[in-house]
Structure formats: C-alpha cells, structure tokens
Amino acid sequence: MKIAIKAEPRKLQGTGASRRLRRTEKVPGILYGGGKDAQPIELDHKDLLLKLKQEAFHASILDMEVGTEKAQVLLRDYQMHPVKPRVLHVDFQRVAADKKIHMKVPLHFVNQENSPGVKIAGGLVQHVMNELEVRCLPKDLPEYITVDLGSLQAGHSLHLSSLQLPAGVEPIVPKGEDPTVATVVIPRVMTAEEEAAEAAATSAAPSAAEVPTTAQKAKEEEPAAGGAGGKEAAKPAAKEEKKK
C-alpha cells in the first residue's frame, strides 16, 4: 500500500515561528537522514491528522514530496497537544533502498475465536505483544504481520519462533530469547463457598452513611453540660461558701 504525503520547505524556525505556523493550520516538521542535511518542513494539519489515524501510515515506507524533491521516508516521531486533537510537530527520516531499517510493525491476530482453547475450552486469548520490532530492507517492510491463533490450545502459548515472518524480515529480540506473543487462559470460576464468603464480607462492610465524619466524632467527644467539666467548676464555688 503506497501512501503519499506532501510537504513544503520551512524557511522560518524557532518557537515563535512554529506558533505562528500552527495558527495557519500548518504543522512544523523535520526531514533528516539519507546522507543529506536535515530539512525543516511544514505540512497541512488536516491532511496529516487524517493520515495519522491510519495504522499503515505508522509502519510503511511513505512517498514524500517536498517542493521539487521526492523521497521515501518513514514516520519517526510526532507530538500531539495534551488536550486538543492537534499535531504540534512531526519527524520523518529518509530511507536508502540498500540499507536495512529498524521498524515496529503491528501484529494482526486472526482465527482466535476458532482456536480450540476458545471454542472448546471457553478460554480467553491474551495478547502479550501487539507489535514487533523488525529489521529489513525498505522494499521488504510489511504493513503488518499476521498471527494465526487457529490451533492454540487452552493453557498454551504462542511464541515468536512460531510466527511466519515475510521474506527478508528478521525480528529484533535479545539473543536466545523466544518471547510469548499470545496465550489462552481459562477464567477462574469461584466455588459456592468463596461466593458466600465474598457476599458475607460485602454485607458486613459498613456503608459510607454509617461511618461518622470527623465533625461528628468531635461533637460526640465534647463534654455534656453538667458533666465532668461542670462538676469541677462547681467545687471552687462550694469552698468559698464554706469559708463564709
């Protein structure tokens, strides 16, 4: 799947220039790599935001046009506004056809509802990995990697060594490791005794209305009129009367 994106050279740089650029619905960015100098660029915000919602845009070789220059690039990073759906900055890297690249590729899981662990044993599939970092030439970069769970049994796991990777694609993992990609677990069923114990514990717990507030506690602890405090105050008066 070929994805094209258009950009323009950016002449003004700096925080103030970038802020003014964003007001015109443009996104500041940078294009680097490929043995060339870094090129400041600007892109249309609406078009870029729509493309960022496509999974393939994050894991594909993109055909970029910058002015009169055409290059194959990878999306390397982008920054979003913490609240608004607004792209603040974006980075692209040029790629050379004869040099291998490192890229995270999404995993697409299929046939999990037909696996024996789910269909027969009533298990639940847990995706331990959702993407895989790979090394390959640009021409061999897959848009995604398919993970077939059709034969996964309950209590078993599917490991990386079981995946069928496209030709020319090698995973980047620590030497000697074979990480788990997915597993099927059987949900634990509570016994009647455990359910009864949980119900008893829930009913025994006091509700929020039954727990006194700090102000209520303080009021309850105040000495009542004529209490110990009143008796103590009455003693000096009795002594004075006796002297007379």
- CATH superfamily grouping of the largest domain: Ribosomal Protein L25, Chain P
For the record, the CATH class of the largest domain is Mainly Beta
What would you report as the Rg, rounded to the nearest angstrom?
A: 34 Å
Number of strands: 13
The ordered string of helix (H) and strand (E) elements is EHEEHHEEEEHEEEEEEHHH
Structural class: alpha+beta
Overall pLDDT score: 84
The major sheet is characterized as: 6 strands, mixed, barrel
Q: What's the helix count?
A: 7
- Calculate the terminal CA-CA distance, rounded to whole Å: 111 Å
Low-confidence stretches: 227-231
Give the CATH topology of the largest domain: Ribosomal Protein L25, Chain P
Characterization of this structure:
- There is one protein chain.
- This protein has helices at residues 15-23, 45-52, 55-58, 116-119, 192-204, 214-221, 228-243, and strands at 3-9, 26-33, 36-44, 62-66, 69-80, 87-94, 101-110, 124-127, 131-136, 145-148, 157-159, 170-171, 180-185.
- The protein starts with a strand and ends with a helix.
- Strand 4 and strand 5 (69-80) form a beta hairpin.
- 25% of the residues lie in helices and 34% in strands.
- The strands form three sheets. The protein has a six-stranded mixed β-barrel with strand order 1-3-2-6-5-4.
